[in-house]
């Protein structure tokens, strides 16, 4: 190719988001018309999510370690973490309040008159058991791994984050002597991102299998039975994204709609797999490409996946009040404020658990004796459909948080951000360029 020439346009069917969208549509069709076949395709979705989770720990470790080592200032790391947690605390609490307000306004469970004694609580036994194991103390202690390499072996995000921060700070403090280690880790990160690029090729297959299973197992009929709750949750999350996060984005100098368009491939992947973790490695790369400083991305994104769960928080208060309304339980203002406080704590205590939204709801209701935990059986059938909305809202919320914290910290390249959101992202390296592969 001679200088000055432009690359030929990529055929539409080679874009990752198009492939995932087609796969989702095929999965819905298979699950609807051939439900048994759809259920049998579950291993495709599970396998892809396992592939991505396999690489998440190395991606986080390498990104954070090399990022902090490059900063060479422990004070800077602490300042970024403080700003990130301040952001997480404010908007997570706001999401809980929004869910509470909408539930009181719309009252999706009013008039159902469900007798809790008629509900099958055995269906939710596994979730309530997990919720009972979650305490703030246990959660904090679980951040510390049994061994240093054990964090990477187990793949627990917060444990990996803890070890990576320690390792990065140590590299920065050692200084020149540690340069060879830093160079090796930096080179390894290129290899790991190339692995991510390879794994993303399987994204349509994973989305197809996961969506076929969801529709085949639960059926679209489950949606019709509780359409009011599902619609209320989706609408509330949409309002939160457009109004709340959109306002934050506008103040920070970018458009929430352009950001959503920029992350469309990852968002379709989240829809297909009902897991925001499936798109975590690509989110890290795309935010770096959009001009966010590597050390900030590496710290804010993984931490946000555990502490900045906007969608999960909206779901918790909305679902809790739905159950109360459906079973005829009236909650006073004081009880609702207690619900809010408990949810703030339980949402952190169950961070990182599979099915975290349902588990945190069980943990919250178990502390509020007036609302029957058995009422969770009412929403079990549609929880899978709502988990997609939870994951989408969480994902977008963390993307916005990272850009905002980067801007606060002076670690945002505005030219790169504008170019990326306009559809002309500047490449980082040849290896990282392949990650998006669209």
Description of the molecule:
- This protein has 438 residues and is mainly α.
- The chain has a single domain, classed as Proton glutamate symport protein (Orthogonal Bundle), CATH 1.10.3860.10.
- It has 22 helices and no strands.
- The longest helix has 33 residues.
- The N terminus and C terminus are likely disordered.
Q: Which key phrases capture this entry?
A:
438 residues, Proton glutamate symport protein, disordered C terminus, disordered N terminus, 75% helix, mainly alpha
Distance between the termini: 21 Å
Percent strand equals under 5%
- What general form does the structure show? globular
Provide the helix percentage. over 70%
Structural class: mainly alpha
Number of helices: 22
What is the ordering of alpha helices and beta strands? HHHHHHHHHHHHHHHHHHHHHH
**Spans where pLDDT lies below 50 across 5 or more residues:** 1-7, 349-354, 429-438
Number of discrete domains: 1
User: Would you state the CATH class?
Assistant: Mainly Alpha
Biggest sheet layout: none
Please name the fourth-level CATH homologous superfamily.
Answer: Sodium:dicarboxylate symporter
**CATH architecture field:** Orthogonal Bundle
Query: Within the CATH hierarchy, at the fold level, what is the topology?
Result: Proton glutamate symport protein
Number of strands: 0
- If you average the pLDDT, what whole number results? 80
Radius of gyration equals: 22 Å
């Amino acid at each position: 190719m001679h200088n000055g020439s432009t690359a030929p346009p990529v055929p539409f069917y080679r874009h990752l988001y198009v492939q995932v969208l087609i796969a989702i549509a095929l999965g819905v069709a298979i699950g609807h018309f051939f439900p048994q076949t759809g259920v049998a395709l579950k291993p495709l979705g599970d396998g892809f999510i396992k592939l991505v989770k396999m690489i998440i720990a190395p991606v986080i470790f390498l990104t954070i370690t090399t990022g902090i080592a490059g900063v060479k200032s422990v004070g800077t790391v602490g300042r970024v973490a403080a700003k990130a947690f301040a952001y997480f605390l404010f908007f997570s609490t706001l999401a809980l309040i929004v869910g509470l307000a909408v539930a009181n306004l719309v009252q999706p469970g009013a008039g159902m008159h469900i007798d809790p004694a008629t509900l099958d609580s055995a269906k939710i036994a596994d979730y309530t058991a997990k919720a009972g194991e979650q305490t703030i103390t246990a959660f904090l202690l679980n951040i510390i791994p049994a061994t240093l390499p054990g964090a990477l072996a187990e793949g627990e995000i917060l444990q990996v984050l803890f070890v990576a921060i320690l390792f990065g700070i140590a590299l920065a403090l050692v200084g020149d002597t540690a340069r060879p280690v830093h160079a090796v880790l930096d080179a390894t990160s290129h290899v790991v991102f190339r692995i991510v690029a390879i794994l993303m090729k399987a994204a349509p297959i994973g989305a197809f299998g996961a969506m076929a299973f969801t529709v085949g197992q639960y059926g679209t009929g489950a949606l019709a039975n509780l359409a009011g709750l599902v619609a209320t949750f989706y609408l509330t999350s949409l309002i939160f994204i457009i109004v709340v996060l959109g306002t934050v984005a506008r103040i920070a100098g970018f458009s929430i709609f352009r950001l959503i368009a920029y992350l469309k491939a990852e968002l379709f992947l989240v829809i297909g797999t009902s897991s925001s973790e499936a798109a975590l490695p690509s989110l890290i790369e795309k935010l770096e490409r959009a001009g966010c400083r590597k050390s900030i991305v590496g710290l804010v994104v993984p931490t946000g996946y555990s502490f900045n769960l906007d969608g999960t928080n909206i779901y918790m208060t909305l679902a809790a009040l739905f159950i109360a309304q459906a079973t005829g339980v009236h909650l006073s203002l004081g009880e609702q404020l207690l619900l809010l406080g408990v949810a703030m704590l339980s949402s952190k205590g169950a961070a990182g658990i599979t099915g975290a939204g349902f588990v945190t709801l069980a943990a919250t209701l178990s502390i509020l004796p007036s609302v029957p935990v058995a009422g969770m059986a009412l929403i079990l059938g549609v929880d899978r459909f709502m988990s997609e909305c939870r994951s989408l809202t969480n994902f977008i919320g963390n993307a916005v948080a990272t850009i905002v914290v980067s801007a606060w910290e002076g670690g945002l390249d505005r030219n790169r951000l504008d170019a990326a959101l306009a559809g002309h992202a500047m490449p980082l390296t040849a290896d990282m360029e392949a990650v998006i592969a669209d």
